[in-house]
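Lecture notes, continued. The same structure-token format from the folding unit now serves as the input rather than the output. Read the line below as a description of shape only.
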């Protein structure tokens, strides 16, 4: 099995590895001093006049694109460089006028075989790739994209916790564009551990300074990003054409310099060629869409606007009703919410002639009412959105204490923000004392003498405050009945707010997706795969197109891919507008989306690492046995057992289990338990966490070697920490080395002390999650082998952590599904073999099922019905190994 993966990775990866090495050693010609003002590509070679060409030639190039965002997401100009020549590209809209159509950049010369291996290097290169014409053809050509930001993350990145620490050594007034020594605080520098010098943020300038020029020999002006401000309009770009093109070319030079420094380092970290194959294939993700995409955007926005209109209308009606109390001689003081508003008002004033003053604003209305009014008395009106501070009071929001079965009115504290008021007295004492009481003073009466103020619970802990009860963090409290109202209109407004929450969070990202649709003349490129398409497909009238996702193949120190829209999209929820987002990725005519989720991937990886320690037998440890033998239906799997210990549901138990496996401690478990159940006390949460960790992780072994015993997961944790604290930690299967920012030797201080436990959570997390990335890269390598060997009409669509999807022609669905099952068998066998275990339990050998579907969704039978998508999407089907 190891020989198989060696051969498969060699076939797929060696042609690209050779090109990458050649580019890393190449010398480039001098950058042109002037740039040609013409549409399309221009070539600049030494000793030859600039000439118009169809596309850059060469099989390895560095590439950068600039866009004028106010003019749209399409490219404005680009620069590329090879070892032979420089190239510049200008859009027709830039050269010929704003009335020209938007265009993409052709990157493959007409006389070049599209299937030939070719490497394009860039920094955050998926942005550039999304503006290249050939990338929107369904057929998978030979071009692969190498991201220098990804290479840097994998070799010199640091964890999110380290990023906070790293900031302590910065001089706030000094830009990183100058040099590292100036950027870091000299007084603190001598106290800084080595890892502080081993990485940087991910911007092009930061990585260049860290990787190429830490001493600051290059003039900061050469790397300045101020020129980017010129791209505010096409006219500004035209006026400064030479400057902005040179700016783009300097980015190409900086990217090349980074690449030539960082590639040898990346290859030294890499233990197997499958890592490179996985990274390169992930640079080619492709999301097919059709007319449903625009319909999704339009309908989501329409329903959202209508829901918000109704919510605002409810709030205005409630405000009008409340304002009438100004005539009632202080009756508003009897209302637990309205009593805290400013009820001062000015009566109508009259002239000597007995006529009302024209410029008096809303006479007779209370001050809070005036603050919500926009415009003149005659033509204006109340403008109240859920985000306004008065909204929770008009809606009569209450915080419900589940333990006491009591509800208390919300109140806004000038310092501690939103909280609730509790009558003084022992029988009203809230169950969670971490959030109060705090000092407060009622603005209009003496309520503070009879009531205590408590802050609203916060998922970030008792030191945080709530600025808006309608914020994202508080939606779950509305959903589970902790933020409530007895007013029917208010309940409807809360429901509308919940319905709009997902679309509010995703609408900007969804609308900014660069979607390229066919224009009938180029329809074939959206439907041809492995050189073939059918007349039936080409005759279809359905508009089709594609989205290139903005993927960073290695986006975290664990090498997990990062993408802001598609890799974070949730499953459709019946009450949430726009939550059917993922289902808008739909297969073209004649194709299906075929893929699977790896069953309990990281759980199995962690358990088999523990099994290796105890006799190298699958299921040798309690955790290994539970992973293989336990079932969800019987309540004997790990997540069900954890749920029983903690008294929570199984989905919440999953989060606990993976957090624990990633190295998080008891404090994490206690805080997470309080997050899931805000009514539990801190002491109860700590006791539950203590019980869980004693049952699972066990007890620490005293002594220098450390380790754990007497817990169901003790062998696993001992093995993970052994790997994490090795002199040079590497993943146990593909042997990828940990980032320099987490190397144990780089935690050395000026007194030569090494803290082996520092950032241990991040390092243990790296072992598990980076091994899961190895699993994914092996899957991609295996599927590439099957597609090549058997001529399958399939290409990678997307990977989302433990999920992988392919676009597959209808006639090859069964073969691709079978190849996926075999891939799971091969990859798990590879893991077992690398750990010295030369058999594999049948229960984990194959996927539980491979999904075959027309749309992208978590389960083939999800209806995808939401307020913005009332129609049921017909179900797909599943193929198990039988």
């Amino acid at each position: 099995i190891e020989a198989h993966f060696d051969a498969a990775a060699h076939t797929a990866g060696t042609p690209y590895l050779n090109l990458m090495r050649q580019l890393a050693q190449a010398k480039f010609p001098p950058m042109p001093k002037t740039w040609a003002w013409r549409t399309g590509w221009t070539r600049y070679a030494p000793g030859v006049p600039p000439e118009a060409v169809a596309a850059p030639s060469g099989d390895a190039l560095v590439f950068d694109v600039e866009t004028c965002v106010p003019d749209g997401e399409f490219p404005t100009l680009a620069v590329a460089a090879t070892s032979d020549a420089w190239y510049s590209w200008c859009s027709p809209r830039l050269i010929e006028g704003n009335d020209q159509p938007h265009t993409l950049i052709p990157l493959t010369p007409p006389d070049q075989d599209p299937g030939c291996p070719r490497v394009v290097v860039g920094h955050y290169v998926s942005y550039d790739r999304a503006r290249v014409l050939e990338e929107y053809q369904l057929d998978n050509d030979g071009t692969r994209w190498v991201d220098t930001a990804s290479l840097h993350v994998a070799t010199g990145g640091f964890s999110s916790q380290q990023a906070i620490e790293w900031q302590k050594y910065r001089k706030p007034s000094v830009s990183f564009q100058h040099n590292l020594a100036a950027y870091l605080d000299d007084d603190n520098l001598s106290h800084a551990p080595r890892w502080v010098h081993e990485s940087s943020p991910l911007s092009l300038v930061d990585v260049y300074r860290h990787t190429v020029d830490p001493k600051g020999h290059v003039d900061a002006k050469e790397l300045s990003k101020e020129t980017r401000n010129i791209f505010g309009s096409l006219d500004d770009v035209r006026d400064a054409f030479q400057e902005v093109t040179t700016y783009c070319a300097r980015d190409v030079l900086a990217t090349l310099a980074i690449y030539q420094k960082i590639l040898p380092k990346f290859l030294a970290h890499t233990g197997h060629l499958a890592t490179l194959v996985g990274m390169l294939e992930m640079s080619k993700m492709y999301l097919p869409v059709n007319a449903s995409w625009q319909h999704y955007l339009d309908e989501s926005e329409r329903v959202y606007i209508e829901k918000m209109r109704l919510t605002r209308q409810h709030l205005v009606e409630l405000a009008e009703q409340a304002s009438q109390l100004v005539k009632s001689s202080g009756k508003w003081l009897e209302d637990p919410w309205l009593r805290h508003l400013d009820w001062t008002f000015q009566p109508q004033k009259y002239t000597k002639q007995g006529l009302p003053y024209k410029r008096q604003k809303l006479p007779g209305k209370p001050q809070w009412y005036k603050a919500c009014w926009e415009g003149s008395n005659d033509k204006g009106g109340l403008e109240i959105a859920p985000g306004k501070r008065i909204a929770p009071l008009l809606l009569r929001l209450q915080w419900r204490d589940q333990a006491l079965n009591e509800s208390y009115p919300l109140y806004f504290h000038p310092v501690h923000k939103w909280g609730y008021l509790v009558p003084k007295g022992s029988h009203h004492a809230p169950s969670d004392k971490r959030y109060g009481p705090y000092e407060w003073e009622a603005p209009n009466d003496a309520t503070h003498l009879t009531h205590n103020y408590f802050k609203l619970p916060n998922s970030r802990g008792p030191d945080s405050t709530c600025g808006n009860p309608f914020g994202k963090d508080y939606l779950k409290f509305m959903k589970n009945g902790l933020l409530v109202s007895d007013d029917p209109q208010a309940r409807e407004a809360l429901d509308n707010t919940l319905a709009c929450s997902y679309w509010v969070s995703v609408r900007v990202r969804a609308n900014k997706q660069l979607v390229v649709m066919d224009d009938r003349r180029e329809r074939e490129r959206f439907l041809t795969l492995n050189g073939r398409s059918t007349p039936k497909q080409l005759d279809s009238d359905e508009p089709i197109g594609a989205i290139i996702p903005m993927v960073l193949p290695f986006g975290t120190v664990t090498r997990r891919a990062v993408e802001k829209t598609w890799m974070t999209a949730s499953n459709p929820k019946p009450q949430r507008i726009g939550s059917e987002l993922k289902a808008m990725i739909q297969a073209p005519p004649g194709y299906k989306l075929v893929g699977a989720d790896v069953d309990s991937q990281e759980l199995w990886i962690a358990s088999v690492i523990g099994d290796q320690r105890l006799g190298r037998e699958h299921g040798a440890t309690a955790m290994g046995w539970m992973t293989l033998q336990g079932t969800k239906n019987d309540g004997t799997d790990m997540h069900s057992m954890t749920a029983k210990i903690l008294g929570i549901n199984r989905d919440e138990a999953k989060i606990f289990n993976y957090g624990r496996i990633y190295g998080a401690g008891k404090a994490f478990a206690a805080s997470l338990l309080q997050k899931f159940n805000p009514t539990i006390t801190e002491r109860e949460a700590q006791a539950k966490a203590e019980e869980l960790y004693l049952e699972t992780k066990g007890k620490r072994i005293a002594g220098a070697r450390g380790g754990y015993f007497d817990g169901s997961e003790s062998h696993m944790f001992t093995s993970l920490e052994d790997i994490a604290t090795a002199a040079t930690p590497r993943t146990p299967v593909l042997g990828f080395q940990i980032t320099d920012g987490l190397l144990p030797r780089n935690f050395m201080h000026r007194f030569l002390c090494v803290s082996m436990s520092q950032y241990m959570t991040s390092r243990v997390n790296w072992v598990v999650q980076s091994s899961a990335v190895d699993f994914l890269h092996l899957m991609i390598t295996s599927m590439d082998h099957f597609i090549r060997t058997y001529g399958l009409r399939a290409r990678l669509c997307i990977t989302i952590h433990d999920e992988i999807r392919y676009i597959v022609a209808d006639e090859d669905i069964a073969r691709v599904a079978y190849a996926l099952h075999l891939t799971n068998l091969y990859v798990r066998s590879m893991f077992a073999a690398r750990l010295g275990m030369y058999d594999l339990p049948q229960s984990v050998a194959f996927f539980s099922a491979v999904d075959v579907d027309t749309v992208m969704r978590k389960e083939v039978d999800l209806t995808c019905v939401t307020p913005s998508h009332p129609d049921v999407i017909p179900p797909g089907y599943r193929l198990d190994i039988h």
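Point for the exam: The chain has 26 helices and 24 strands.
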